[in-house]
Amino acid sequence: MATSCNVTVEDTKLCGVKRVVLTGFMGSGKSTIGKLLAQRLEWSFIDLDLAIEERCGRTVPQIFAEFGENRFRVEESAALLTAIKGTNAVIALGGGAPETSANRDLLRAASETMIIHLDAPFETLQKRCLRQAEKPGATSRPLFSNLEGARARYMARRPLYEALSTIRLNAATQSPPELVEIVWQLLA
Ligand code: S3P
Fold this sequence. Notes:
This protein is an alpha/beta fold. Helix content is 51%, strand content 15%. The chain has helices at residues 30-41, 48-56, 60-67, 69-83, 101-109, 122-134, 147-164, 176-187, and strands spanning 2-3, 7-9, 19-23, 44-47, 89-92, 113-119, 167-170. The site of shikimate-3-phosphate has 11 residues, from helix 1.
């Protein structure tokens, strides 16, 4: 594994990449960076949370409130199964998608796929999520309503993001345009 201060790249074949998957905890910038990256690459952008909302005809908080987390995870896996078939696509996962082992298997088996972990300390992500929640029209994140629960999930998930991804980017110190530039260079 080659490591520089802000980028960690496993020995992976970067040419011939047909999809980029962004993973990381809530607030790590998956949707923001995914949208920008897709624009830059002229690829399509798939936001897994939006795909789930379309499948269910409900927002993510509504799905949690009406049906509970287990049902949300079932819908998330189904949405991922469709999303991962997309080519020339940037896919932003929800923060919990890698918790499901079938999702991890599916992602690992996907060929020509670059999986990027947008990494940041919990405190940074917490502040960001709180700031985002204050914006008018913001979608709330049900799992952030319990701070200690969110922290425990972060600790449990971080190794999963790490094991799944081939590239780790520091999403705390670099802005979305800077991160897009790094991915662009890696793909070039
Ligand atoms: C979740 C993250 C959310 C969304 C849902 C559950 C999680 O997506 O899928 O609220 O389990 O971490 P973001 O990571 O895009 O906020």
